[in-house]
């Protein structure tokens, strides 16, 4: 992210920390850009205070300043987490007595349920009743991407980083790849954590149909290993599982737009984001298996508490089914309605 005249450039320790996150922990460009902006917010709040002289009070004041400017609790918590992580990394190197952000409490974030599709909505989206069978390369690519998102619970960044197979060449190493024979996908997710997730039968079939036409979007120069060894840009194109119309690795925005278009054509009453399919995967697997640990592993959550939100979603689904199906629930509802209609 480019520095602007009213936004201070980052000191070398902060630049080094972001570089460390990028090179060694494989943080996404989106996350790094957000952290960079968070660090700038801290500097902008105290432009005349040296980095090593920032105290807990300075951190509290910076947080209060952002709150007064209208920043939402979730963004405030992320900013504080970025500051805390930076000082946790840098304080020992700089000989600071403590981490000035460690004792500052993050604002309470309202916990909202993920927006998941129902099983029926997911089937309508992927089975495409009333819509033409995917025939073009673009449509087959879309079908494969959405089957993988729903069938394996990948994050959007993990999906677009997938390679056809694991590759390691000078200057290039896969961070996610397909294992067709084993019907597995291996990805390196948040924090550099690697996990393998199953590839369902429908997703595997959709991928095979896409791979049969993938060459239509592959530039000739990137078609063989011999022609790409000395060009990192061509290596990435050659390796990428999903390609865009211009012959490069597909962008997250293209995935979002194509999914939104399909949801509209399918007549779904809700907007569908790629992350909705990840939420749907988690919710539907949990409803069927009740195995929270397995869902945690497949989603790549570091803490079980992150996965537990889907138990609330599952309970909400069960509560709705109970209200609609159980005779005592119906009678209670009817009785409540009748009582409301009768005057005292």
Describe this structure in words.
The structure is a single chain. This protein has 344 residues and is mainly alpha-helical. It folds into two domains: 12-94, DNA polymerase, domain 1, CATH 1.10.150; 119-299, hpI Integrase, Chain A. Helices cover 55% and strands 5% of the residues. The chain has helices at 12-24, 29-45, 56-68, 73-94, 119-127, 137-152, 156-160, 201-211, 232-239, 252-265, 274-289, 292-299, 304-307, 309-325, 327-341, and strands at residues 168-169, 172-173, 176-179, 184-188, 194-198. The strands form two sheets. It has a three-stranded antiparallel sheet with strand order 3-4-5, with no helix packed on it. A two-stranded antiparallel sheet has the order 1-2. The longest helix is centred in the first third of the chain and has 22 residues, at 73-94. The radius of gyration is 24 Å and the shape is globular. Residues 1-8, 314-319 and 328-344 have low confidence and may be disordered.
